[in-house]
Amino acid sequence: MCAPKLVLSGLLSLTFAAFGQSGLAQKPAYLDPTLSPPARARDLVHRMTLEEKTAQMINTAPAIDRLGVPAYDFWSEGLHGVARSGYATLFPQAIGMAATWDEPLMHEIGTVVSTEARAKYNDAVQHGVHSIYFGLTIWSPNINIFRDPRWGRGQETYGEDPFLTARMGTAFVRGIQGDDPNYFRTIATPKHFAVHSGPESTRHTFNVDVSQHDLWDTYLPAFRSTIIEGKADSIMCAYNRIDGQPACASDLLLKQILRGDWGFRGFVTSDCGAIDDFYTKIGHHFSKEKEDASAAGVKAGTDTACGKTYLGLTSAVKSGLITEHEMDISLERLFEARIRLGLFDDPARMPYARLTMAEVNSPAHRALALRAARESIVLLKNANNLLPLHGVKNIAVIGPNAASLDALEGNYNAIARDPAMPVDGIAAAFPGAKVVYAQGAPYVEGLMLPIPRTQMHPAQGSLVQGLHAEYFANENLSGAPVLTRVDPQIDFDWNSAKPAPQVPANAFSVRWSGTIAAPAAGDYDLTGKFAHCYPCNEFVGFSVWFDGKEVGTFTSEASKESRASTTPAAHLHFDDTRPHEIKIEYKHRSALFGGGVTLSWAPPTAPLREAAVEAAKKADVVVAFVGLSPELEGEEMPIKVKGFAGGDRTDIELPQTQLELLRAVKATGKPLIVVLMNGSAIALKDSETDALLEAWYPGEAGAQAIAETLAGKNNPSGRLPLTFYSNIDQLPAFDDYSMANRTYRYFKGQPLYAFGGGLSYTTFRYGKVSLSATHLHAGEDLTVEAEVTNTGKVAGDEVAQVYLTPPQTSIAPRFALVGYQRVHLLPGQSKPMRFTLHPRELSQVDAQGVRAASAGHYEIKVGGSSNVTTLSAAFEIEGRVELPR
């Protein structure tokens, strides 16, 4: 697509033309920008027929030509970059962004995501595209509390703490929506409201019977902050029930709290299929059929449904289940949002109408992704100051994540342009060293994983790793290729993106050829994982030749929701480990682009491990990239292998195959640096590694950021946004939503690594903590001051954290985060830190869910982690002041 100038002019011309043809002499009120958005929305809705109204209440709202209303799809994703709509800046996964503890950075990231989303929307409209993923209503952030590390979607959140989640989420929302007084750049949608964090396998059926204390102390504060402070204009209700009512039909959540207590004026969208769950066989059995479900959702305040169930509203009105007026309330909210996005106004009035595709993945945006990746990395162990590395000549890089695209992306991801793999990042950061790569292990025994570059060469006898690639500007491999190159591995995500500038995104084909060798003789099933696109009417063709014979072919037509599917493509038998000729042909066609392919197999574990051990023996140091994958942890996934089920984890330790790899390499005696790449906490014992970095799913710049950290160019400054437990025995049952003995606030055991923790290549010292008062009247502010000094030899960032210990009761948290600041310090430099704690930070929630600043003895602790024990100061609060809900 090309960059438009005044991208909305065509839409407005159609709008005015429609009214001109209908004989109306005067511009309708909804097109008058001098009127208020509510008045304009009311005028537009009242011009619609019942059938037209019904169609506008699902996420794929169609055009109403007679009124000049364009089609609009409410579903767009921007969790850590604009997702599923072509190339965009890919930031670290949300849990990695939380590890930065950097609110200004989060605001900048939200600004970039919304800027790129607006540019993509402008370009799409210019080309007549009104599709899913190209809209301006961004279904992010996910601010559910990551209460249990087994939850596969925890990677999408900002961790386990309600205060940190609230601060980071609110900063992101403000960046997403912009600060123009008249128009949103895009609209943010905090989700999933509320009390939702797994298990994935029962999310469509389970009821959460949560205490009033836990509801208001843990599960609601972040939503309150993003609505009241961040002024998010949309919110997404969850799948589960709460107190017996589906969240999307909850009087408590949607009427009493959201619109009553918090005064929310925006619109509510359901999670996809959540209204279906009201009446379907595997759902909540709350409604008899779709008409009852639709009426219940709208009456409770769910304004638009992701899915088709709300199409039953027309018959629901005719049968008296709901009135047309009740529908109008929701419709006016939906169209007020579209008006405030500027979709019915002259682009000359719009500050965002001139944003073009030049904004997408611009140099400045890429630089911000690198900064975010650098700040997200957490150093957890550094025995004998092994890091940073100096003077190493031979580096062994091992592990299933060393060359994994998935491990950079996470889920709900943007599509990065030419992302470097971690092994390539190390080669670039250590140009004087010999870097030897060995995959070493699968994630889990028997699980498919990408065929590593070490097993493929573009020709017999070549030392170059990878396959010869020919790209064609058509789906039939006809004519001359428009691009030839060597692809190190077949592991590509081209969802709505061009494989290369000269290759068209909607119809192309690729031929890969060269040799392939197996790590051991035996039978191998080759699998092509194809990224599908909705609603692309996509065609995929995939064929494999081995030793000159065609051994497998596969074709598919895909028109379902965007997804990645894994399909057996060919069976190969190796009598030996020598190179064999291989040719692979991939054909792709789609109406709205899409595409992507990963060639995988399930090799035997022993020879992979042996190759890694041999590489380690010849190296000065070993860097092991291990952890998890969004192919294992994520949203409602059809996977069940040891340690994983349905997208969730059943254990929190590193999978056994990877653990055996680390132990075998450690036995060589070579220094072992482990880089974890994952979306949730992993219990890795201290004895398994000499140095340990947590890198999360770090985004497009992850390889560079990790390598710079190992080399010392980046001083690690990330801090853990969740507790790393020692083993699963320290956790309550996964489906128990009580906060007792969960997260650092209530956990009574000894964690493996504490919330807020993280090391640096320098050291920091805190001066005495001083308070503005030792006695407060309830409702007054408290100022906390402390000095932080860099006592080491290199510059670094410290994250100063303030924790409050309240009077201890049977339900009170042990202590809780109430403030933090990131500060950069040169060697020997000191800076005073000042924190103002307001009544809400100083308040507690009682058993009835009432939040108040209450009388009692309190203690303040300041330090670089939640386990700080020395720097503290005490104060008293007199009286009691209840705070607004």
What fraction of residues sit in β-strands? 15-25%
How many helices? The count is 19
Radius of gyration: 28 Å
The gross shape turns out to be globular
Low-confidence parts: 1-18, 20-24, 532-536, 558-565
CATH hierarchy, class of the largest domain: Alpha Beta
The CATH topology annotation of the largest domain reads as: TIM Barrel
Terminal CA distance reads 47 Å
Into which percent range does the helicity of residues fall? 10-25%
Structural topology:
Blueprint: H1 9-21, H2 37-45, H3 50-55, E1 60-61, E2 72-73, H4 94-98, H5 103-126, E3 137-138, H6 162-177, E4 187-188, E5 207-208, H7 212-219, H8 221-229, E6 234-237, E7 241-242, E8 245-246, H9 251-261, E9 267-270, H10 290-300, H11 313-318, H12 324-340, H13 363-376, E10 378-382, E11 394-398, H14 406-409, H15 422-429, E12 434-438, E13 449-450, E14 456-457, E15 467-472, E16 483-487, E17 491-493, E18 507-516, E19 522-532, E20 538-546, E21 549-558, E22 563-574, E23 580-589, E24 596-601, H16 605-617, E25 621-627, E26 640-641, E27 644-645, E28 648-649, H17 656-666, E29 672-677, E30 691-694, H18 702-711, H19 743-746, E31 764-766, E32 770-771, E33 775-777, E34 782-790, E35 796-805, E36 816-825, E37 830-837, E38 844-845, E39 851-853, E40 856-863, E41 872-878, E42 881-882
Parallel strand pairs: 3-4, 5-7, 6-9, 11-12, 11-25, 25-29, 29-30, 33-41
Antiparallel strand pairs: 1-2, 7-8, 10-30, 13-24, 14-18, 15-16, 15-18, 17-24, 18-23, 19-22, 19-24, 20-21, 20-23, 26-27, 27-28, 31-34, 32-34, 34-37, 35-36, 35-40, 38-39, 39-42, 40-41
Helix pairs in contact: 2-12, 5-6, 5-13, 6-8, 13-18, 15-18, 16-17
Protein name: Glycoside hydrolase family 3 domain protein
GO molecular function, one term: xylan 1,4-beta-xylosidase activity
Signal peptide: 1-20
